Description:
By secondary structure, the protein is mainly α. The chain is built from three helices and no strands. The radius of gyration is 19 Å and the shape is elongated.
Amino acid sequence: MTYFFICGNQRAGTTLLQSILCSDDTTSPLLQEAMYFRSMISTYQLGKTILTTKLKDYFTTLEELKILTPLG
Length: 72
C-alpha cells in the first residue's frame, strides 16, 4: 500500500486533489488522520507565533535564549 500526504496552503486546491484521488473505490481518504495532522501543524504555528512575539520581552537576542536551552 502506498501512502500520500496532501498538504498545502488554503485555497491551493488540496481539497480538490484529495477529492479526485479518493473518488476511486480502491483509495481510503483517512480523514481522521488528516484532521490530526492539521491540528499538529496549527499548534506548531501558534506556538511559533507566541514564541517570536513574546521572546523580545525576555531576551535581547536569540543567542541568549540558546544559552538557557538544553539543546541550544
